[in-house]
Amino acid sequence: MNRLKGFDLLALGFMTFALFLGAGNIIFPPSAGMASGEFIWQAALGFLLTGVGLPLLTVVAL
């Protein structure tokens, strides 16, 4: 297994930061909650699966 160079490690750090704190993860949840109306729990579950579950799987895959 090859060791990561400094530049590769920095790029991986920026990618992970952007994955969790991208603009979509800050703007989308409130608008999804307002648009869901009475289906708030379904919207929350969908966001948790796609906004938390998929990034977590990505970090595990790395």
UniProtKB/TrEMBL annotation:
One of its GO terms (molecular function) is L-valine transmembrane transporter activity. Its main location: membrane. It holds the Pfam family Branch_AA_trans. The keyword Transport applies. Keywords: Amino-acid transport, Cell membrane, Membrane, Transmembrane, Transmembrane helix, Transport. GO terms for biological process: isoleucine transport; L-leucine transport. It is a multi-pass membrane protein. The keyword Transport applies. GO terms for cellular component: plasma membrane. It is found in: Cell membrane. The chain crosses the membrane at residues 7-28, 40-61. PANTHER family: BRANCHED-CHAIN AMINO ACID PERMEASE BRNQ, BRANCHED-CHAIN AMINO ACID TRANSPORT SYSTEM 2 CARRIER PROTEIN. This is Branched-chain amino acid transport system II carrier protein.
